[in-house]
């Protein structure tokens, strides 16, 4: 029951919903440094706040990122993902011009696909531990 301490309430429901998201860079290029990942976490946390969701955990490597998001039933995961990927790509491109070389063909940082896994079957702490164990680049 400790996993459900942070039950949220909406106007007509009570809920605890988490999704594990993984975004991969276009062509799996090794793009990110620790500075990029740190800024990306800030950007994605801000996008989550705009959607009234909570970025519970974030981590990544040079070519992909993991997110654990607590979200209400009114939020469509696909819309959240589109915003997270779009805003992070645009802002990183503006703030880090050196990333342009990774956009050489499609003008996109992220692959068009993504992974979204329901965390309903696993306790959020287990997914959080998995995300925290992902290695960040030097």
UniProtKB/TrEMBL annotation:
Segments forming domain Transposase IS200-like: 14-134
Biological processes, Gene Ontology terms: DNA transposition
InterPro entries: Transposase_17 (IPR002686), Transposase_17_sf (IPR036515)
GO molecular function: DNA binding; transposase activity
A Pfam family assignment: Y1_Tnp
Alphabetical list of NCBIfam families matching this protein: transpos_IS200
PANTHER family reported in the protein's UniProt record: TRANSPOSASE FOR INSERTION SEQUENCE ELEMENT IS200 (PTHR33360:SF2)
Name of this protein: IS200/IS605 family transposase
The species this protein was found in: Streptomyces marianii
Name of the encoding gene: tnpA
